[in-house]
Structure formats: structure tokens, C-alpha cells
């Protein structure tokens, strides 16, 4: 039996949101969306507000990524929505089911020059799965349900609705649409069998598992498939931690040896983009496993590309009935390379050099981070070291900006992570460049009693630009920041606490104080500006 709901537009929207498991709202105050606030306030529905709209969308995305359910951001009309577009775009690239509800100037005066009058849809349509203006209060429950269904349907992604002023402030009466679970996409069984046979018969197979493995709740199925076929596993994005670091098939350091020596590379739940050499692994055959046909690579011709529910595909891999090659020697060789790389990393992470090298920061962090800590990367050069030296022990504990590479995610992700996990360590790793995008939202964290630890790698430069530009041109421009800037003092002024660290020996005690503080706490680490993360050009 369907439920009928009455009330103003905000109340009608909230009824549909709650039916889909939405449990909080992230926002920056704006008059166009007052009815949504009124509905939430009256119902005791939590509201978290920020100082820049992008942080609201990033917070909603963190909830969506960590909890595998819709996250909600509410933005006022015009600049409120446009300030959130980078967050929407990141959610689009990350396949995060975020719903943004926007205010909109009144339709009955459209074209007359109302405050913040703008048609948002042409801007947001290319980076959302569903974008719609809802012109009547009665239609709001239907529209919210349609938007959330689209956001949750693989390949997942954000959705957007905006409400003209007279629609959201009006009283309506409508049936609440039923919440129907999204049906899994059934893969082509012949394609699955072909892919499984390629992996089983390979002499030197490698698995690379990405964020969609976590988003699709396929972590256990991945482990079962890897164990059944005896294939070494590397991970990226939220795929990190899918196999615990101590698992005999979990690898992180021997990636170059693996990809240069593999005869079959199985990429699961992540695109064949710049992070994976655009799917070019030399002579190796590529098996690309995706959660929806739309995610099959168009620039590469894989040997096989099963598309559908990752749990179904990986379970079929584990149950492959055909012959399986012996991979013991291959795995043993990679383990030797892995162990050698770990020894080199351990030496770098213990370096006593001053100025401090980024590797030492991560060496100290490894000593204090709990296995279930949520680690957030927001930066370029400094955060690249995090990917190298930190190894998440559990799935669902790593957040980074993803392939869109948008800086400024840090404080929003921290808010969403803290709301999701009130009792865990939340650690934001931030370059001093990235600090300029969102550090003001420490005030939002402090005011709403949401403690997190922020570690800034402060080298006084835009590291990913300065070093390559000097190599290319012999000089650099627009690549310097103030050396030694006291970001910890900024955090203190915003209601948190912090300190600056200049000596390697002081790192451990500073991090301990940070995690014990119970407030937003920034450890401002002055790092060596000459130490650049080695990489090829990321501009291609």
C-alpha cells in the first residue's frame, strides 16, 4: 500500500529522501532552500553546514562512498549551485551516488531578473546521471525517487534537482513512490566464462582492483576469486584494503615488475585511464571487468570485458570449472620484488634528514594510525607519497579525489567521514597548495564538534608543477607559495589547534598529540622542497 504525504515542498522532499536511507544534509545557508531546512529541523534530521558549497558536496560524496548509499547536499540558487559543480563532477568521475538539491529563482518571474536567476541544468547535465527542474510541490516525491534511483543504478553517479521558489514553498499532496531495490545487471555468462578461462590459463596473471569493487560490495568476491585462481592483487582508489596487507596475494610495491612481466592483466572496477597507462600493458592481454556496459573502454580492445554486477562476475571467476595454470613461481618472484621494495621503503620512512622528507611523515603516521582509521588524501605531490607508503588495512578506509584530481576535497571528505564514523581516527593528508582550497572549513568542523587530524606537507611550492616546469623550460612561474606558512595558526584561529614541526624527531610526538586532542588539529610539517615524487608527465 502506498503512503500519501502532505506538506510544503521541503517536507515532501524529506519524506522521499528518508525512504531511501538518506540520514543527513550538508549545506550552506540560502533563502531559496529554507523549506528543506524547516522540514529537517522539525523532524530532527541532522543538518551540517559549511563555509563553501563545494565542501557540502564533498561531504555528501564521502558519505556516499563510505556507506554505499545516497549522500545529500542542499545548495541555494545560482552561485550556490555553481560553487558545487566541482564536487558534482568529482562524484561523476568517482561513481558516487550523491543527490544535490538546488534552489531556483521563481518560475512565474523567470526572465525578469530575480536574485540568482539562472538555469542550472545545462551546467550540471553533463556531469550527472539525472538532472531535472521540478515545477510543482506535488511532483517532488516522484522526482526525488527518480533521481535517487538513477544515482544508485550502476554505473552509479550523482543526480541533481532544483526547485523554483514557488514550488518548494508551496503545500502539496502526493503519493510517496515505493522504494524498489536496484536490480543487479546480469553479465553475459559466455563473456564471463571466456574471461575466467583467460585468467586461469595465464602463466603470469595480475589483478588490479579499483573503487567499484568496494562500491559494488564485491570485496569478499574479489578475495574468493583471487584465492581460487591464485592471482596476485594490486589495488587503487577505494579498492585499497580489499585484501589485507598480510594476505599472501596482496601486493603494493611490486607493481612495475608485475605489469612489465604479466601475460594477462585483469582490471576490475576501475577505468583504463592515465593511472593505468591507458590500458597499455605491452604484450599482455587485458581483461576489463566493469559494473555496467557503459564503462567498457572505448580506446582499448580488451581480450574480454564482462560487464555487470561485480559480485556475480567474480563469484563465477572463483567457481571456474576449467583447468588452472600453476602461478606459484610467478607469485614467489613478485613476493621477492615486493620484499625488496618494502625494505627500501622502510629505510626511506626512517630517514633522519632535516628538512623532513615526505617519506618520514608517512613512516611516523604508520605507527599511530589504527587499522580502521579513515585516511583522506587532498593534494598532489605530498599525497602521492601517501599512495606509496600507506597501506590501508581494511576496505572502505581510503578516500582520495579520484581520476578527476580535484583539490579541495579534504575538509568536506573529513566532515562526511566523521559523521559516518564518530569513533574512528580521521586523518586528512593535505599539501600546502590544497590547503588553500578548503581550510576555512575547519571552522565548520570545530563549530559542530567534528574533530579530525590534518597533516599538511608544507614545502612552500606547487610541487607537481614547479619541478616539471623547471625540467621543461629551465625556470618556473606561478609555482611558489609562502615558505614556512603557519597553517596551524590558521586552524587555531578557526577554533582548532595545531603545531609546526621542523625536525624529524618531533613528528611522532606531534602526531600523538593531534590524535589525542579531540579537536580539529593541524600538524604543519615543513618538508624538503627539493624532494619531488618521481613520475612521468600526468598531462597526457
UniProtKB/TrEMBL annotation:
One of its GO terms (biological process) is isoleucine biosynthetic process. It holds the Pfam family TPP_enzyme_N. It comes from the Bacteria. Signal peptide: none annotated. Residues 378-525 form the Thiamine pyrophosphate enzyme TPP-binding domain. Its cofactor is thiamine diphosphate. Residues 192-316 form the Thiamine pyrophosphate enzyme central domain. Keywords: Thiamine pyrophosphate. One of its GO terms (cellular component) is acetolactate synthase complex. Residues 9-121 form the Thiamine pyrophosphate enzyme N-terminal TPP-binding domain. GO terms for molecular function: acetolactate synthase activity; flavin adenine dinucleotide binding; magnesium ion binding; thiamine pyrophosphate binding. PANTHER family: 2-HYDROXYACYL-COA LYASE 2 (PTHR18968:SF166), THIAMINE PYROPHOSPHATE ENZYMES (PTHR18968). Belongs to the TPP enzyme family. This is Acetolactate synthase-1/2/3 large subunit. It comes from Micromonospora mirobrigensis.
